[in-house]
Amino acid sequence: KTGTGPLLWKIMAYINTVGVVGAGQMGSGIAQLAAAHGFDTWLVDTNPEALTRAEELITNNIHRLVSKGHLSQKDGDGALTQLKYSSNVQELSSADIIIEAIVESEGVKKSLVLELDKIAKCSTILASNTSSISITRLASATSRPIKVIGMHFMNPPPIMKLVEIVRGANTSDDRLHNQGLGGEVSELFGKTVICSKDFAGFVVNRILMPMLNEAFYALYTGVASKEDIDTGMKLGTNHPMGPLELADFIGLDICLSILNVLHSGLGDNKYAPCPLLVQYVDAGRHGRKRGVGVYDYRKSSQKGKT
Ligand code: NAI
């Protein structure tokens, strides 16, 4: 495992195997990070096509990191050997920490954590990469609420520097064993950690999503074109991406789910999703991953016109 000093030894004593469930945008990135940092890693998805796509993506990414000198050939080969793919969740019985990154639906996540709770060792930490769903409620579905944490990576996980660690109402405050360990694993992955209490949207999405929603309202009410909204925010506020472009990158379905959680969880109409965002999602325009969202990515490598 990479890293040095007491932190490395402390983590090594507790975490050898990392399990990741969900091989989409986020899960594949988290699995890549774990394997590249020397952990035995399982990536599990119920959809075999998602696993094939993830394997291809991760293998290419690791080769690129090696060719650019960001990872040694030995560590790159090690990462590819240490990462295993499966559609069988039972493979996670030996994992010391399991990070779920499946669809942003409370019902689906609850049934998964219930299943993981039965499969995993008693000492295993169950972490959720949820963007907004209550960790307290997910934890309550298990027999180990003290060992359930939020571990919210940003997209794409191998590149973005932040992880939000979220402590549910019943998460143990034992620094070493629970949320502290989640934070330390994240730090070992090279991330900066912030801690959030368990309120809808945590810190980052509570602030980010209303801005993205407002960009949809600006488009919906005809204040400006999508290009001008994005250029305005990029050059006017020094953001690397415009809000509509960023929403497409995150996934419009994910943005809508998060806004719905903010709206119902915080009980304020200012979080109500813009009807245009709802309509795009209803039309299957989920953003880059589907080839079309606010922009059309199918026509060329550049953003197209929709
Ligand atoms: P995605 O749609 O790209 O991937 C989800 C994957 O989960 C799919 O491959 C699907 O087959 C799999 N899946 C669904 N149900 C499953 C089950 N019961 N067991 C195993 N696999 C299952 O979604 P994405 O964007 O990777 O998001 C995943 C999670 O990460 C969500 O909770 C989301 O809110 C969160 N997140 C997303 C970010 C983003 O920018 N997209 C950023 C940070 C967090």
Automatic annotation (TrEMBL):
Domain 3-hydroxyacyl-CoA dehydrogenase C-terminal: start-end pairs: 201-297
Pathway named in the protein's UniProt entry: Lipid metabolism; fatty acid beta-oxidation
3-hydroxyacyl-CoA dehydrogenase NAD binding domain span: 17-198
Site (described: Important for catalytic activity): 152
Family designation: In the central section; belongs to the 3-hydroxyacyl-CoA dehydrogenase family. Belongs to the 3-hydroxyacyl-CoA dehydrogenase family.
Keywords for the protein's UniProt record, in alphabetical order: NAD, Oxidoreductase
Gene3D superfamilies for the chain: N-(1-d-carboxylethyl)-l-norvaline Dehydrogenase, domain 2, NAD(P)-binding Rossmann-like Domain
Descriptive protein name: 3-hydroxybutyryl-CoA dehydrogenase
Reactions it catalyzes: a (3S)-3-hydroxyacyl-CoA = a (2E)-enoyl-CoA + H2O; a 4-saturated-(3S)-3-hydroxyacyl-CoA = a (3E)-enoyl-CoA + H2O
Ranges in coiled-coil conformation: none
Molecular function GO labels: enoyl-CoA hydratase activity; NAD+ binding; oxidoreductase activity, acting on the CH-OH group of donors, NAD or NADP as acceptor
One Gene Ontology biological process: fatty acid metabolic process
Species this chain originates from: Erythroxylum novogranatense
Residues annotated as binding NAD(+): 22-27, 45, 104, 109, 131, 155, 289
